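INTERNAL AUDIT FORM
Audit reference: QA-55
Scope: verify that the stored structure record matches its stored sequence.
Auditor: D.O.
Record contents follow.
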Amino acid sequence: MRRPRLPAWLPLDPYVLALLATVGLAALLPARGAGAAVADGASTAAVALLFFLYGARLSTREALDGLRHWRLHLTVLACTFVLFPVLGLAARVLVPGVLTQPLYSGLLFLCLVPSTIQSSIAFTSIARGNVPAAICAGSFSSLAGIVLTPLLAAALLGGDAGGFSLDSLLKIVLQLLLPFLLGQVLRRWVGGFLVRNKKVLGYVDRGSILLVVYAAFSAGMAAGVWHQVSLPRLGALLAVEAVLLAVMLLATWYGAARLGFGRADRVAVQFAGSKKSLAAGLPMASVLFGAQASLAVLPLMLFHQMQLMVCAVLARRRARDPEAVLADQLDARRVVEVSPGVQPPAAQGR
C-alpha cells in the first residue's frame, strides 16, 4: 500500500479558506434580530449533531485494543492536556504587553483542546512512524477531550468560559457529553450507515462547523469584540503560536527519546502530541464562550494552519532519516524473499 503523500508545496488547507470566507460573510452580513436567534438555535443543533457523529464513529473496541501501548498513549495525553496547558498558563506574562486578554484566553483555550486524528495519522505515515499507535493515540485524545477540555476550560479560564456555573455545566452535558454517549450507544445500529456514507457525512461535519463559526462570529460582530483586535496584535499572536508549536515539536521528539521510545514511536508521539483539533475545538468554544467565541477560536484557526504547514515539511524530513530509510530497505528485502516475483517498493515508484 502506498503511503499518503502531501503536495510538494506548503499546504494551505482549503477548509481554512472556507472558514475565512465564513468569517468574512459574518462580518459583512451578520445574523441579527430574529435571524440571530435562528442561527444560534441551528448552531446548537449542529454542535449536538457533531458530537453524536463523533461518538457513533469512535470504535470503543479499537480504542481498548490499543491499551497494550499504554505508555505511548499516556505520553501523548500528557503532552496534550498537561504540557500544552502549562505553556498556555506561562504565556499569561504576555498580557497586556504582547497579547490582549481576549486573545490570551483564546490562546489558552487552544492549549486545552484534544489532538487531531486524521492529520496525525497522515503525517506519521509519511514520516514512516508507528501509524497504529497514532490512530489509537488520536482516538484516546479525542475521547478524553470530550470531558477534559470543558473542565480544564472552566477551571483555568474562569469567567471567560463561564466558570463552574450550573448553566455552563448543563450546556456541556446536553450539547457535548449526551450526544456523544448517545452516538456510542447507537453505534452498533448506525455504524454501518456512517461507514457507507463517510464522504457525504464528511460534508455534513464541515458544514456544521461552518454554521457554528458563522453564528459565533455574527454574535461577535453584534457585541463589537473585533474592535479589540489590531494587526500588530495579530502579528504578535502568530509569533507566540510559532514559538508554542516549536517548543511542543522539540519537547515531544526529545522527550519521547528520553522516555526510551524507538524512532517509529517517537514519530507518533511528535505528530499526535503537538497538534490541536480544529474540528473539536470550534464547537466546544461556541458552547463555552458564547458571544466571545469568535475571538476564542481565532488562535485555534491560525494554529491549525500553522501546524499543517510546519508538520508537512517535518514529516518529509523525518521520512529521510537514516533509520527510516534502513527500515524501508529491510521491508523491501523481506517482500522479495517472501515473494520473489514481487518488486520491492522502491522499484514500484514508492
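Auditor finding: record pair retrieved intact. The two ends are 9 Å apart (CA to CA).
Action required: none
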